[in-house]
What we know:
Blueprint: E1 3-8, H1 21-30, E2 35-43, H2 53-61, E3 64-73, E4 76-84, E5 88-95, E6 110-118, E7 121-129, H3 134-145, E8 159-164, H4 172-177, E9 182-183, H5 184-187, E10 208-212, E11 216-222, H6 227-232, E12 238-244
Helix pairs in contact: 1-2
Amino acid sequence: MPRILTYNVHRCVGTDRKLDVGRVADVIAEYEPDIVALQELDVGRMRTGMVDQAHEIARRLEMAFHFHPAMAVEEELYGDAILTLYPERLVQAAPLPFYGNLGPVVEPRGALWLKVEIEGVAVNVINTHLGLVPREQQIQARALAGEAWIKHPLCAGPTILLGDFNATGGSLVCRTLTKDLRDARIAAPKPHSATSTYPSKMPILRIDHVFVSAGIEIRAVTAPYNARTRVASDHLPLIVDFSVTE
């Protein structure tokens, strides 16, 4: 059964303020995912020792990966990645919109889209990390739900949209995305496991999400809470087991 994991790794700096890429990779490895969506990765940045975190985590997990720099300052990059054990190809990596009248934008946001072959079926996997300002989040959610992403002609077939949406399950952001997709937590068999992911030390907010289209059947959803996950990042990982039904 395929397993996908989404994880905001907070540039691999834990709640103990220690920078430890290996610790993040170990957390992921423990759950043996086939596909991993990561947010808040540093690549070649002074603040985190110039390490290419996307490459290093992928190397430790022995996975192929694609990285999208949502923000670039000269040679320093910051953004999101998808790692996988399955055959894959990049479809699109692009910024998400924002409007200047929303005030200062803390950081640019983007999305990364791969086609991953699972049991002979091409599955769209889109990883994203939305902004912190609610109105900006709504703009970005509409973009993801529109013709550039979910309704793009190339996005036919089973689709998984996941990441850090900085918005709770009842928000306008999630209501926008569930017009055409299903929230994996709600689609999972009952009883539902705990899926709040933030803050990792005492998770009370469900802001990391997995949304799926027809053709994806959810088997289980969980956000593992233990001594290791509480400290490795300020978010817990969110894990979804699923099957492809078309």
